[in-house]
């Protein structure tokens, strides 16, 4: 018998939702010259707020303000002084953690327990960590006096809106650069509250600018001649476009793109623990995770048993209202993303994979997709090759470590991988040979500001986080 949970809804009032949000340029909130957009709660399809967007003139003003702030103040300020501002941002995020978590959940659709326990604390941790570097850059291994680059133009996706903003802004500021950041069209709200925090932390005007809008605003920003460094997180498709348009400009570029990670379970792995790791690997954040463990590779001898345990566990996941503290899987971020998931799942059925979908009830309104596991997947199927970016797992089997490795590396991507085994030597053997930026052993989806993160091949290049991540923001 399983326990039924009563609803435990978080209060929406905590989000301090405002009817309108505006771009943040040169230390002020301004009326953008772009067409305003409406940000929607994907769990209810209601409009949350109207958001002013930046037109080309606003992007130009933001880049020029960032350049002035760089030349006059931020680029010359001693690291120990910059650190004080960055620490202040970290503390203010922590102070407003609950408000930010509720707002993130409303705007993005992710479960409140994730925005509360992962997104917001990790965002604050990124500012804390990088504040510590600001006055120690000469010890980072990039020479005795590493210099910043100038204005960083940064474009982020919708899956971790506040956390991605923190990943981008914190190292840029720590190294002495100024920033113009474009949040994703469907999730601009928490970045604009971060702008409010930055204003209240009294950062000099122009050091950070936030320009909401759609892809055209992103393109305007990355192509602006005043930008010295571009940092992009998003799809491989747009990453390629940006790399093409930046070729020959001398701008420094880092790309964090898609993934199709292998999560590999050997026959000696602790199975219950592995099941938890598989669930966390693919159903965390509705599978809207670039490093999601979306391809499960199971050793053949334990495949049936593992699948049985997995189905049993996945059937207990509570799918629904993201504001409910008991919810495990929330809403798909947008109608477009939901259709993309449905299309790929249909292709999996048509190509002959065996579909299992959780019998969980789904809300009538909003964008939801029940957790789904495909067995009998072969490497040529689209669901084994393409990023689904949703709560859908593809299961393949293998017999030997060599076969596991060959299958794991048979992808154009290379962002992350997981290995489950009792054997330490096998973990090291696999980690050496897996072409992935991050390899987790007996765990999955662990993030820490001190650990570098980034991809191989079509997952992009450059690293974010840790000492290694500083390089992208220094003239080295
Ligand atoms: P996307 O379409 O590439 O969008 C990412 C960002 O780029 C958004 O802010 C988007 O604006 C903007 N953009 C779109 N076209 C642009 C252009 N031509 N020039 C400059 N900017 C442009 O990706 P998405 O669908 O939002 O996000 C999902 C993808 O991101 C997945 O493939 C996922 O794997 C990847 N991702 C990777 C990482 C990583 O760290 N490697 C992390 C998270 C997500 P709009 O919001 O208006 O579209
Ligand atoms: Mg939204």
From TrEMBL:
Alphabetical list of SUPFAM superfamilies matching this protein: ALDH-like (SSF53720)
Aldehyde dehydrogenase domain boundaries: 29-475
Annotated Gene3D superfamilies: Aldehyde Dehydrogenase, Chain A, domain 1 (3.40.605.10), Aldehyde Dehydrogenase, Chain A, domain 2 (3.40.309.10)
InterPro entries: Ald_DH/histidinol_DH, Ald_DH_C, Ald_DH_CS_GLU, Ald_DH_N, Aldehyde_DH_dom
Record-linked Pfam families: Aldedh
Active site (catalytic residues): 256
Keyword Oxidoreductase in record: yes
GO MF term set: oxidoreductase activity, acting on the aldehyde or oxo group of donors, NAD or NADP as acceptor
UniProt keyword terms in alphabetical order: Oxidoreductase
Keyword Cytoplasm listed: no
Signal peptide: none
Family: Belongs to the aldehyde dehydrogenase family.
Protein name according to UniProt: Aldehyde dehydrogenase (NAD+)
Organism: Actinokineospora auranticolor
Taxonomic classification: Bacteria, Bacillati, Actinomycetota, Actinomycetes, Pseudonocardiales
């Amino acid at each position: 018998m399983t326990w039924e949970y009563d609803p435990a809804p978080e209060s929406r009032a905590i989000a301090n939702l405002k009817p309108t949000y505006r771009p943040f340029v040169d230390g002020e909130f301004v009326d953008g010259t772009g067409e305003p957009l409406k940000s929607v709660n994907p769990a209810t399809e209601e409009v949350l707020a109207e958001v002013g967007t930046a037109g080309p003139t606003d992007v130009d003003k933001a880049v020029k303000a960032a350049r002035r702030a760089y030349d006059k103040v931020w680029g010359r300020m001693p690291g120990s002084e910059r650190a004080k501002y960055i620490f202040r941002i970290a503390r203010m995020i922590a102070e407003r953690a609950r408000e930010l978590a509720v707002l993130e959940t409303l705007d993005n659709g992710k479960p409140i327990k994730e925005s509360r326990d992962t997104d917001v604390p990790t965002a604050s941790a990124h500012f804390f960590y990088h504040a510590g570097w600001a006055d120690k850059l000469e010890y980072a291994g990039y020479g005795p006096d590493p210099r910043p680059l100038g204005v960083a133009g940064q474009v982020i996706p919708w899956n971790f809106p506040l956390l991605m903003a923190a990943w981008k802004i914190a190292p840029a500021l720590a190294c002495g650069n100024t920033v113009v950041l474009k949040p994703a069209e469907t999730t601009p709200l928490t970045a604009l509250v971060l702008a409010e925090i930055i204003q209240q932390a009294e950062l000099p005007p122009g050091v950070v600018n936030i320009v909401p809008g759609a892809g055209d605003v992103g393109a305007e920003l990355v192509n602006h001649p005043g930008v010295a460094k571009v940092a992009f997180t998003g799809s491989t498709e747009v990453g390629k476009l940006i790399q093409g348009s930046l070729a020959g400009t001398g701008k420094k570029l880092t790309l964090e793109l898609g993934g199709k990670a292998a999560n590999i379970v050997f026959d000696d792995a602790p199975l219950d623990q592995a099941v938890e790791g598989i669930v966390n690997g693919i159903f965390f954040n509705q599978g809207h995770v670039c490093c999601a463990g979306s391809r499960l590779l199971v050793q053949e001898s334990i495949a049936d048993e593992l699948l049985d345990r997995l189905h049993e566990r996945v059937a207990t996941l509570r799918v629904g209202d993201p504001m409910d503290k008991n919810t495990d899987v929330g809403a798909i971020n947008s109608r477009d993303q939901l259709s993309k998931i449905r299309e790929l799942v249909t292709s999996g059925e048509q190509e002959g994979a065996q579909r299992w979908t959780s019998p969980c009830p789904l809300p009538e309104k909003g964008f939801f997709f029940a957790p789904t596991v495909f067995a009998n997947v072969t490497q040529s199927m689209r669901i084994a090759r393409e990023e689904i970016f949703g709560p859908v797992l593809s299961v393949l089997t293998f017999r030997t470590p060599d076969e596991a490795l060959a299958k794991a590396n048979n992808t154009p991507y290379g962002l992350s991988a997981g290995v489950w085994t009792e054997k330490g030597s096998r973990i090291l053997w696999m980690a050496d040979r897996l072409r992935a930026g991050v390899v987790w052993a007996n765990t999955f989806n662990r993030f820490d500001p001190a650990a570098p993160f980034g991809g191989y091949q079509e997952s992009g290049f450059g690293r974010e986080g840790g000492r290694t991540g500083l390089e992208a923001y220094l003239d080295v």
